[in-house]
Amino acid sequence: MQTTLPLAATAHSAATGDFNNDGNLDLVVGMDGQNALYLNDGHGNFDAPIPFGDPAHTVDLGLGDLDNNGTLDVIAYNFGSPSALYANSGAGVFTRIQTFAAATDPADRLAVGDLDGDGDYDLVTAQKAGMTIVYMNNGQGALQQTRTLPAGLKPVLQDVDANGALDIVLIRPDSSQPNVSRIVPFLNNGAGVFTAAPLNLSGGKGFNNRFAIGDMDGDGDLDFVISSLAVSGCGQQGCENLRLLLNRGLLGYTAISLDSVGAEQIDLVDLDNDGDLDIAASGLAADTTLPNDLQDRIYLNQGINQLTASATFMIKEVGAAPAQPHPLAIADFNADGQLDIAVGGSGFATIYHGRNGQLFDACPINPLLLDAELAADINGDAYLDIVLRSGLILRNNGAGDFSPSISLPLVLSANSHLAAADVNGDGRLDLVAFYANAPAVILLQAANGQFSNFFSLDSQSFPATSLATGDVDGDGDIDLLVGVG
Q1: I want to staple 64 with a disulfide (CB 3.0 to 4.6 A). Which of 121, 154, 362, 370 is the partner?
Q2: Residue 466: is its pLDDT beyond 80?
């Protein structure tokens, strides 16, 4: 089933929630114009859009029951005009009850959460050029500006210091280094009063920070793994690195340098099955003056509750130098109970197997041009195979060894989105591909494992930004959910 929703203007943001309390997920879309609500009939079909509010450029949306009447309200963060809070009557009818400061840049974002512990939703709006504003809720949906913090991007609400109150984590420019940014937690005392944590969470040039949050030492609180991505123009030694900040409580952190280079992607997983979180980091192939950035790495944690600044992680470089940024896919490809790492890039593809809780053994694959990959059990033998965007399927022999076996009648681009699902209900996985600037296609798998029934899903191309599959309307077959932007 394909559902196309009419848009009266360009969509910039979207959020899902049950706005009329019928148990079905509805959709609200923030646009460059009037925003719109789409009500779900329970079968994956959406009614005609219900416009609400004045025309505006809505860059972000926040949802929450701000007036405590049991229905979801909508916060529209607008660029170029006042932002607004819309109260929900309970039937999906929105009434503007308050306006507040506009966004200063299309990249500005908001976050919603209970910041003062009184049981209602409060609001944080972050501006790239301006300030970060904290609005407290009086319990009846009236938001009052109570605090201002420095400008920042991408606000995240997390209880960083484990005091039971949500803190605000921002990406901020570094005043001492031009074009360099930092990740700054503002700690909440429990009453909505925020203080910048005395941490040195260095970012990279511009706003290219990467960070992950997890309990690295098993003590029950959240630690930071931070990548500083320095590209040409950083101009200062040491502004590029990968570090761990261990949370010691009471605003105390132990900084551990993991590497002198940064990472494009950070994943925290237990790679060696020893009960603690390890780090998988993909390299960045953007700056020839920093060749070490080209290497992927794994960092094996040597023991929870015993991390020190002198001996913490065992490091191994993974893979050859890619020609461009690339993803890491982590899964148990050979069904031996241990996580493996698939490294994909332009000109190479390699699987690194977990072996007896030790480092990974490389299983090289013939050089192939690829930009991304999909892991799925294509032939139903209980082993994960790999579908390459170059149009090849790599079959897994059960030992985690892969070889090209099927050439697909399509080649995917870097902006394509690929999914595997049994579209026609014959018990075999089929492939669905959406492109940014071309019609979507479906490949049906035949009984012999070949993909031959190639057809366009629609004559109209969708500028797809994401793709997922599932039984949306509960009728027992696979539907497609496509993000369009």
Answers
A1: 121
A2: no
Helix (H, G, I), strand (E, B) or coil at 158: strand
Band (20; pLDDT cuts 50, 70, 90): very high
Burial 64-76, CB ≥16 within 10 A → b, else e? bbbbeeebbbbbb
Q: What is the pLDDT of residues 386-403, one digit of tens each?
A: 887 667 787 887 766 666
User: What pTM was computed for the model?
Assistant: 0.55
Written as six digits, the tokens of 163 are 């005091």
DSSP classification of residue 103: B
DSSP assigned state of 294: G
| Confidence tier at 313 by pLDDT (50, 70, 90) | low
Q: How far is CA 23 from the centre of its chain?
A: 26
| Among 465, 458, 416, 453, CA closest to 1 | 458
Tokens 């490389």 sit at which residue? 362
pLDDT at 250: 66
Which amino acid is present at 73? Answer: D
Host H or E run for residue 167: strand 167-173
- Sequence length of the chain is 485
- C-alpha pair distances (Å), 16 with each of 8, 61, 122, 141: 19, 10, 19, 20
Instruction: Report helix, strand or coil for 8.
Output: coil
Asked whether the beta carbons of 471 and 479 are under 8 A apart, the reply is: yes
Q: Which of 299-313, 352-366, 399-413, 440-454 has the highest mean pLDDT?
A: 440-454
User: What is the rounded CA–CA span in Å between residue 443 and residue 456?
Assistant: 9
Distances from the Cα of 150 to the Cαs of 111, 196, 197, 226, 449, in angstroms? 15, 10, 13, 21, 57
Contact 286, 233 (CB under 8 A): no
Report the pLDDT value the prediction gives residue 170, as an integer from 0 to 100.
87
Q: Averaged over 197-211, what is the pLDDT?
A: 54
In a 3-state reduction of DSSP, which class is residue 217? Answer: coil
Concatenated DSSP letters of 50-83: EEEEEEEEEEEEEEE-TTSSSS-EEEEEEESS-E
Give 114-119 contacts, CB < 8 A, sequence gap 24+: 114/166, 115/157, 115/165, 115/166, 115/188, 115/192, 116/190, 116/191, 116/192, 117/164, 117/165, 117/190, 117/191
Q: Binning pLDDT at 50, 70 and 90, where does residue 291 land?
A: very low
Answer yes or no: is pLDDT of 216 > 60: yes
